């Protein structure tokens, strides 16, 4: 589709799953005060999307620098895929990442997370093909399925002893990756099984 900008109507309350899926030319989305629910996958594969704007009066959602958050900015819901930035520093207010939050983001080379994040959800960094650097905070206890799938340029990941659960196919097609795990940890056992 050639659609480049969407201004969602003031009467809309619910944006359904995959509403703008693969709208490759979409650059700007404006979300009004009325929206109370945004389903998952709404902006997946919107490779030109640089700005998700949320009305300041909206009680459920907000935006910082064009990225979508919940109202109190404790959850990053979607990073705008079309941004040209190579570095993203997660705001200190954020405690949770949504599934697929950075998926298919081809420009980011470095993502900075902080202690306070307890989980890396399913497909969080899926196919971030130019991602080279990401340090998993010690606060993370769980890594979901496909989190780093096809992060081809990722070279090094350290898994702390605090990690208690690692999902399926987390590191698929990460061809140049070295994984470091603490001796005797769940992560070490996971790595031994992964490479056995």
Task: Walk me through the structure.
This protein has one helix at 186-194; strands at 5-7, 14-15, 28-31, 37-38, 51-54, 61-64, 67-70, 75-78, 87-89, 96-97, 110-112, 119-120, 133-134, 142-143, 156-159, 165-166, 178-181. With 196 residues, it is mostly beta strands. The strands form six sheets. The protein has a four-stranded mixed beta sheet, with no helix packed on it. It has a three-stranded parallel beta sheet with strand order 1-3-5, with no helix packed on it. Strands 9-11-13 form a three-stranded parallel beta sheet, with no helix packed on it. It is built from one helix and 17 strands. The chain starts with a strand and ends with a helix.
Keywords summarizing the entry:
196 residues, mainly beta, 3-stranded parallel beta sheet, 1 helix
From the alpha carbons, calculate the radius of gyration and give it in angstroms.
17 Å
Overall SS class: mainly beta
Helix content: under 10%
Molecular shape: elongated
**Helix and strand string, N-terminal first?**
EEEEEEEEEEEEEEEEEH
Q: What's the overall average pLDDT, rounded?
A: 96
What portion of residues belong to β-strands? 25-35%
Span from first to last CA? 46 Å
Q: How would you classify the quaternary structure?
A: single chain
Largest beta sheet: strand ordering = 6-7-8-10
């Amino acid at each position: 589709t050639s659609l480049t900008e969407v201004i969602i109507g003031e009467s809309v309350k619910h944006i359904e799953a995959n509403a703008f899926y693969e709208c490759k030319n979409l650059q700007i989305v404006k979300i009004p005060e009325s929206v109370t629910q945004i389903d998952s996958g709404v902006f997946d594969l919107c490779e030109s999307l640089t700005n998700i704007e949320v009305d300041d009066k909206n009680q459920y959602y907000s935006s910082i620098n064009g990225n979508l958050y919940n109202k109190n900015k404790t959850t990053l819901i979607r990073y705008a895929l079309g941004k040209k930035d190579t570095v993203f520093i997660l705001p200190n207010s954020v405690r949770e990442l949504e599934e697929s939050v950075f998926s298919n983001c081809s420009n980011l080379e470095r993502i900075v997370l902080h202690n306070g994040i307890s989980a890396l959800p399913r497909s969080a960094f899926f196919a971030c093909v130019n991602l080279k650097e990401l340090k998993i905070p010690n606060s993370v206890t769980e890594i979901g399925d496909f989190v780093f799938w096809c992060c081809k340029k990722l070279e090094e990941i350290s898994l702390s002893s605090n990690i208690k659960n690692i999902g399926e196919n987390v590191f698929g097609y990460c061809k140049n990756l070295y994984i470091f795990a603490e001796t005797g940890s769940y992560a070490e056992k996971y790595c031994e099984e992964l490479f056995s």
